[in-house]
Design a protein that fits this description.
Elements (H helix, E strand, L loop, with lengths): L3 E4 L2 E4 L10 H5 L2 E9 L2 E2 L2 H15 L7 H15 L4 E8 L17 E8 L5 H6 L1 E4 L21 H12 L4 E5 L5 E4 L3 E6 L2 E4 L10 H9 L7 E3 L4 H5 L3 E6 L3 E8 L2 E2 L7 H24 L1
Parallel strand pairs: 7-8, 7-14, 11-12
Antiparallel strand pairs: 1-2, 1-6, 3-4, 3-5, 5-6, 8-9, 10-11, 10-13, 13-14, 14-15
The structure holds 4'-deoxy-4'-aminopyridoxal-5'-phosphate.
Length: 295
């Protein structure tokens, strides 16, 4: 099945997709993006992703070149051409084309946009069964008052540097702290800990992306009798947590069973994480059935 791209409206194989070297996304990371996954070929929570894309674009002063219906139309076009079961869809909007000068007012043509369609790859069953290893790197999460992590921009160097440190220490993920030494998030995922059966995640004010998976858990947990809350999590609270897991669009709820080489709790995915993994799939299925009717 082919991987496809739509570049400023032109559909072509992904490996042939090009943007000019003078695109500001390439030059400066002057872009915003989203990743959407499908379930049974239907985009999951597309509207929320569109809203976050719009918010990110607004924060850096780009107006989106499409509305929700326009984006949905392009996604449908890509999915029809790609024809696989489940897709990873990446939407990138750059300020556009112009001279290699940081002055954003010099943009000559834009915004430019790309949609990418690839077959969805999720972690294998062993990752969910055994959990993954995380490390807390020296590098800190970007400060909210410098480059606010709430903006999902194309500049992920902070996250890449954190992941590089984690990988060098034999871990698969990094859990970044802010300047106050509080837990923020992982490199492309949000973080939850479990304490005495309560699910806790850092508040948005700590400097994190407002994850859509995270938000769904905070919204749905109470209805299923689970207690989920936003609380500040200093490093020692992370290290003494009963359970830790990450959440993201492509990984759902994934257990973290060691931090900096030390086991979290028993060192195995805990009962609260397992319960939430199961509840999350039920919530996702219910939402998906509704979205399938409307798609
Ligand atoms: N934080 C960061 C930095 C991310 O890149 C992502 C992935 N988009 C997340 C959190 C998780 O967000 P979501 O649940 O919306 O995929």
């Amino acid at each position: 099945m082919p991987d496809l791209a739509i570049v400023n409206g032109s559909l072509l194989p992904l490996e042939e997709a090009r943007v000019p070297a003078l695109d500001r996304g390439f030059l400066f990371g002057d872009s915003v993006y989203e990743v959407i996954r499908t379930r049974e070929g239907v985009p999951f929570l597309m509207e929320r992703h569109f809203e976050r894309l719009q918010a990110s674009a607004g924060r850096i002063g780009i107006s989106l070149p499409f509305d929700l219906q326009g984006m949905a139309g392009e996604i449908r076009r890509g999915l029809d051409g790609a024809g696989y079961g489940d897709a990873y869809i990446r939407i990138i909007v750059s300020r556009g084309y112009g001279p290699p000068n940081i002055d954003f007012r010099m943009v000559e043509e834009g915004p430019s946009w790309v949609l990418m369609f690839r077959e969805l790859h999720v972690p294998g069953p062993e990752a969910y069964r055994e959990g993954i290893a995380a490390a807390v790197p020296q590098v800190k999460r970007n400060d909210r008052e410098a480059l606010d992590p709430a903006i999902k921009s194309g500049n992920y160097l902070n996250n890449i540097l954190a992941l590089k440190e984690a990988v060098e220490r034999g871990a698969q993920e990094a859990i970044l702290l802010n300047r106050e030494g509080h837990v923020t998030e992982a490199t492309t995922a949000n973080i939850f800990i479990v304490e005495r059966g309560r699910y806790l995640t850092p508040p948005l004010g700590e400097g994190i992306l407002s994850g859509i998976t995270r938000a769904l858990i905070l919204e749905r947990a109470p209805g299923d009798g689970l207690e989920a809350a936003e609380e500040t999590i200093p490093l020692d609270r992370l290290l003494s947590a009963d359970e830790v897991f990450l959440t993201s669009t492509t990984r759902d709820v994934l257990p973290i069973t060691s931090v900096d080489g030390k086991p979290v709790g028993t060192g195995r995915p805990g009962p609260a994480t397992q319960k939430l993994m199961e509840r999350f799939q039920a919530w996702a299925e219910e939402i998906h059935q509704r979205e399938k009717q409307a798609w």
